[in-house]
Structures are given as structure tokens and as C-alpha cells.
Give the backbone structure.
Amino acid sequence: MRVGIGQDSHRFDFEDHTKELILGGVKFPGHAPLKGNSDADVVLHSLTNAISGVTGVNILGSVSDEMCLKHGIKDSSLYLKEALKHLGEKKVIHVSISIECMTPQITPRIPEMRSKIASLLDIPEDCVGITATSGEGLSEFGRGKGIQVLSVVTVT
């Protein structure tokens, strides 16, 4: 058994009115998107980093840059799938995700996010835990400047 931890954070892009906010593969219409070359899905980026913590193969960086900048692949679920390829015979059996932001309201959308992430990882929905906090406004994320996500994956 192995455990990986991943973190990612992105600032909101209040000037881009063409991009959508996507978290955990779920669209949040009516909210400012996150800055980034890709779709900037900070939840999937954090999960990708957690899997990289298990495999030792960093996907976010040169691999995702090549996928995004050279081949135009902006869908973060494809970065996650790339990370999963490096697990070999290992399998993700549980993930725990903690999201810190002031906006949008995460809790009402947790069931959709759990379903999408479970599907991407090919695990049951009850093996995907997601919590959300504003952090009492103590950080830039809790004050509405962006979103930070911490993820832990358990792999056998």
C-alpha cells in the first residue's frame, strides 16, 4: 500500500469571460474561471500531483505543458489519466480531497464531483471523500482570490 499527497492552487481570472470554472470535472457556471494554460481544474491537478507522489513521475510540468501547449490538450482529466498510466499494476482505492475557497459554494456540488472523480478513477463513489472550507478567511483562498486543494490518494 502507498499513500500520495498532492496540492495545487490557482488564482481566479476575473477578466476572462470566455473560460469556465471547472472543479473536479464539474462546470460551475456564473463563476470566474481559474488562471492557467489548461482548464485549470485545480481539483484534478491536485489529484494528479497526489498520484505523481506515488509513482514519482511528475505529470504537471513538462508533460502537461507538452500536452497543453504543443498539442492543445486543455482538459485536466487527460492529465489525470496520464498520471494513472504510470501506476502500472497498482490501483487507486480511495481519495480524500480538501478544497479551500470562499466562492463558489462547493458543498451543494460535492455529489456531482464525487461521481465524476469516481468515474475517472474507476472506483466506487463512496471511496471519494470531498470536504470544503473557507478557512475562516485566513488565507488568500478564503478571501476569494483563488482556490487551493489538497488531495490524498491510497493505492494498493
